[in-house]
Amino acid sequence: MTFRLRAAILTACLAFSGAAGAQQANPLDVIPDKMPFNIPYGAPISLARAQAAIAAAAAEAEKHGWALNVAVVDSGANLVAFGRMDGAQLGSIAVSEHKARTSVKFRRPTKAFEEAIQKGDTRTVTIDDVIGSRGGIPLVEDGKLIGAIGCSGGAGSQDEVACTAGAATINK
């Protein structure tokens, strides 16, 4: 009886260690059929439209009592307009610009980088000009990327809500 019990335990241990030692497929090895985030760049956003996006983001933030910094960059990642709400923290000025630049350069919301980092994709933090924090959203008109909006000063979720309101003036 003891021999059979030991044999069963040994068999179970070997089976478990074999399964644990099996390599998992690397999700980064998957080759998509289409290029992800393949939005073509368009003509740069105008000052008037950039200011309208900032006004909408600031109005949403004001509605909740959040003091944010809001930046809009054009399709070349150049600052077009910026708004700092009264009382918004100074450190977030550059962060709002960085979120907008990252969003337009990589043609995706900055939340995509935040999610990748949270899932353990450490290569994301090695890419130049990436910010892994939500609150940067591309501005797309007629299927073309004309700029991006970035908000900072609150929690990432607050920044994203305000930026979504600003982006809604362009992204329809």
Major pleated sheet = 4 strands, antiparallel
Low-pLDDT runs: none
How many helices?
Answer: 5
Q: Per DSSP, what share of the residues sits in E-state strands of 2 or more residues?
A: 15-25%
Looking at the overall shape, the CATH architecture is: 2-Layer Sandwich
Helix share bin: 40-55%
Estimated structural class: alpha+beta
Instruction: Identify the CATH homologous superfamily.
Output: Haem-degrading domain
Secondary-structure element pattern, one letter each = HHEEHHEEH
Number of E strands:
4
**Count of the domains:** 1
CATH class: Alpha Beta
CATH topology: Beta-Lactamase
What does this structure look like?
With 172 residues, the protein is of the alpha+beta class. The protein has a single domain, classed as 2-Layer Sandwich (Beta-Lactamase). Helix content is 42%, strand content 16%. The chain has 5 helices and 4 strands. Helix 2 crosses helix 5. The longest helix is centred in the first third of the chain and has 20 residues.
Descriptors:
172 residues, Beta-Lactamase
What's the structural blueprint in terms of helices and strands?
Layout: H1 2-21, H2 47-64, E1 69-74, E2 79-84, H3 92-105, H4 111-118, E3 136-141, E4 144-152, H5 156-167
Helix pairs in contact: 2-5
In short:
It is built from five helices and four strands, in the order H-H-E-E-H-H-E-E-H. By secondary structure, it is α+β, with helices and mostly antiparallel strands. It has one domain: Beta-Lactamase (2-Layer Sandwich), CATH 3.30.450.
